[in-house]
Structure formats: structure tokens, C-alpha cells
Design brief:
Blueprint: H1 3-32, H2 38-137, H3 141-151, H4 156-169, H5 172-249, H6 254-258
């Protein structure tokens, strides 16, 4: 506020105080019934008009201030709503940021596990390549199998012991001995099979001899039976004739006649 404005306000306040003091004096005389002169009545009306004009101006000022206050209230309410919405957006942004941070942490953890798995897989691949190179460069079967066994987790000393055993088993002497054993086993099987067929042949021949002997005996018995039956045939025929003659010569009885 400038000095000129302050001075103007003081002047107006002084004029208002003097005008109201004069108006109060005139009203007091009127209330007591003292007649006013035309100039005094004109002065009183002038004071009243000024007071009414200032009152109207004051009401307009107050109404404007009220309107401004209401507008300010509406703006404040709108600002509050905006603040609430901003706070809501802020909370949502914070939640989304927290979720993004959690997702980033999970992705970092997965990346760490993937890197660890990749290193382990690379290590296993290198070990497998080294084992394969040993197998390719191995001079004996035992050395190759020992390389594979060590790659599978067998201790190196145990794998070397197994390699020596396998190499000894795969030596020329061992293979010749194995071939000799296989030949002896096969020869023994052939012998056993030959002895079995020979025994089977002898058994079959003996059975055939028994069948042949029984067949010849049956033929002899049948011929003997036929000869005996041919020798007995005349006697049987004679007996039948004799019986027929006896039946013819015997006397007839009533029972025989009835029959």
C-alpha cells in the first residue's frame, strides 16, 4: 500500500467522521423539535445521500468480496479435489514404482541365476569336451573307459585301477585265452550233443528191435491159431452133423409137437 493511498484513506475517514458528527447534530435538533433552516435541511439531506451512496458502495464491495470469497472457496474446493486426485495419482505412481522395482529385482535375480547356470553349463561342456578328447586320444579301451568314468564322477585312482584291469583283459594273451576257452566250450558242447545223438540212436535201435521181435511173435501166434482152427474145423463140422442126426432120430413128445 502506497503513502498516497494511505493519505487518501485518512482524508476520507476524516471527512466521514466530520459528516457524521454534523449529521448527528442535525438529527438531534430534529428529534428535539427544533426547526431546521433550509440550508441546514439541505446539508442534512446531502449528508444522508452521501451516507447512502457509501452504504451502497460498501454493500457492493461486500457483495463483490463475498462473490470473490465464494469463487475462492470454489477454487479451493477444486484445488482440494485436484490435490486429492494428485495424491491418488502419486500413491498409484508409488505403487507402480514399487512394483517396477520388485520386478527389476526379480529380473536381476533371474539374470543372476541364468548367469550362474550358464557358467555351470559352460563348465560341464568344457569337462565333457576334455573327456571326449581323452577318449579320442586313448590308446586302449581301459583308458577310454577310465576317462568316461572320471567324467561321471569316479575318483581318478579308482578309474585307473579299472583301466588296468580292462587293459589286462583286452590284451592279446587274454583274448587268445578267451578264444581258447570259447573253442573248448563249443567242442565240449558238440561232443555232448554227439554223445546224446549216439545214445538216442542206440535207444531207438533197441526199441525197434523190440518192436520187430514182438511183431514176428504176433505173426507166428496168428499163423498157429489159423493152423489150429483149420485142424479143428473137420471135428467141428462132424459134431454139428452128429447133433443134427440125433435130433432127427429122437421121438417127438407132445411138448415138442406143440413147439
Amino acid at each position: 500500500m502506497t503513502r498516497r493511498t494511505m493519505a487518501e484513506r485518512k482524508r476520507r475517514a476524516s471527512e466521514r467522521d466530520a459528516r457524521r458528527e454534523s449529521l448527528l447534530v442535525l438529527l438531534s435538533r430534529t428529534r428535539r423539535g427544533v426547526p431546521l433552516t433550509p440550508s441546514e435541511a439541505a446539508l442534512m439531506f446531502a449528508h444522508v445521500e452521501v451516507e447512502l451512496a457509501e452504504a451502497d458502495e460498501l454493500r457492493r464491495t461486500v457483495a463483490g468480496q463475498q462473490t470473490a470469497i465464494q469463487a475462492a472457496g470454489r477454487r479451493a474446493a477444486a484445488a482440494d479435489a485436484v490435490i486429492v486426485e494428485v495424491e491418488k495419482d502419486r500413491d498409484q505412481a508409488r505403487a507402480e514404482l514399487a512394483e517396477l522395482q520388485a520386478a527389476a529385482e526379480r529380473a536381476t535375480a533371474r539374470a543372476g541365476r541364468w548367469e550362474q547356470d550358464s557358467r555351470e553349463e559352460l563348465t560341464r561342456a568344457k569337462r565333457a569336451e576334455a573327456a571326449l578328447a581323452r577318449v579320442r586320444d586313448a590308446q586302449t579301451l581301459g583308458d577310454a573307459l577310465a576317462a568316461v568314468a572320471e567324467h561321471d564322477g569316479m575318483p581318478a585312482e579308482t578309474a585307473r585301477v579299472h583301466a588296468r584291469i580292462i587293459n589286462a583283459a583286452e590284451s592279446t594273451e587274454a583274448r587268445l585265452a578267451e578264444q581258447a576257452r570259447a573253442y573248448e566250450i563249443k567242442l565240449a558242447e558238440e561232443r555232448r550233443r554227439g554223445d546224446g545223438w549216439r545214445q538216442h540212436t542206440l535207444t531207438s535201435d533197441a526199441r525197434a528191435d523190440r518192436y520187430r521181435t514182438a511183431w514176428f511173435a504176433a505173426r507166428r501166434d496168428r499163423r498157429a491159431d489159423r493152423a489150429a482152427m483149420a485142424a479143428e474145423l473137420p471135428l467141428v463140422q462132424a459134431g454139428r452133423l452128429a447133433l443134427a442126426a440125433v435130433a432127427t432120430l429122437a421121438p417127438q413128445t407132445p411138448e415138442h409137437a406143440a413147439q
